Amino acid sequence: MIKPLVDNIEIANLITKKMKGGLTDEESIQLNSWLEEQNANKEIYSRILEGDGFAEGIDLISEFDLENSWNQIEPKIKDSKSFKYKRYFKYAVAASVLFLIALTTYIVNPFEKTEITAGTPRAVLTTVNGEDVVLEKEKKYSDQFVSSSNGTLKYDEISEGSSKNAVTYNYLTIPRGGEFTLVLSDGTKVWLNSDTKIKYPIQFKRGAPRNVELLYGEAYFDVVSAEDFNGSSFSVQSNGQRLKVLGTEFNIKSYPEDLATKTTLVEGSVLVSIAGEQVELTPDSQLIWDKETESFKVIELNAIAETSWKQGVFNFNHLPLEEVMRVVSRWYDVNVEFEHQEMKNIQFNGVFKKDQKIDNILETITKSINTAYEIKEDKIIIK
């Protein structure tokens, strides 16, 4: 029983001396050896060095009259064998202060570090009556016309009498750190990225245009052909532009904080109405709407690579670091801070799987541009 106590007291003394700058080389080796034994030791040690309360603990130890306290307790010790532990008395005081503070704050606020994990399938469905329903991959949900399982929200096929019913709408909101798949009543499939919200009819009317609205965020559409619905066109309204399609696959990226809205055509054809003009896109082309200048341009690119997020891949093709970190922050639900503003404009090129640990991605990014990063709770700091 004595030896573990003595060992802990000795470690407490080493930590005390370390904080006061009085460790010998031999004592440094002993302390480092203890730190390497297990992660819990490192966490408590970090608490002691970084926490505000620990400086007060050291001051308390420094002000404590150790010799006087020992002189008061010594006459009460009858067992002569205990005298060989006299030198440990002052260490016991240090241990009491340091480890009590360390362990107490560790339990109350475990290491002040939030584990940052990759996103998962989750969403919030807002029904006609305004009720919010939380959807998750492992959580099943069903109601009239709709059901959810395994990360997909699916609406029933258009009923024969739907043309007589009034159009009612649902909203699906994807939080930061989430993604979800939506199957509309006509069979159109929509992949929704993190931090996205879409408005759509519970059931389309047969023979009438099929209209949905991407309120913000990013969505990939695989639209069922108009031929299956008596020529009914499919259109998407998003940030001042309207896309009209007959049957095609395309992606819209329209986040409020981004400088541009990007519409990418994968296959088929789409007619974009924007700024009083109509622009027809062809496969592997992208229309970029500049929000500041209120102008647009069309470029050629690899549409599959541009929309690889729906396949679980980040594909950054010579993008500014600020834009790269926006994508990372949405998926991992973290905040990003740049210590030097000029770092935001550095171009980065790379491909990552979305299920990677965030440290792996940050290591690759920062090493490639010769900088460093730091994680503090839920914030990433680019040095």
TrEMBL record:
Residues 175-270 form the FecR protein domain. This is FecR family protein. Keywords: Membrane, Transmembrane, Transmembrane helix. One of its GO terms (molecular function) is sigma factor antagonist activity. Pfam families: FecR, FecR_C. The chain crosses the membrane at residues 88-108. It comes from the Bacteria. Residues 314-382 form the Protein FecR C-terminal domain.
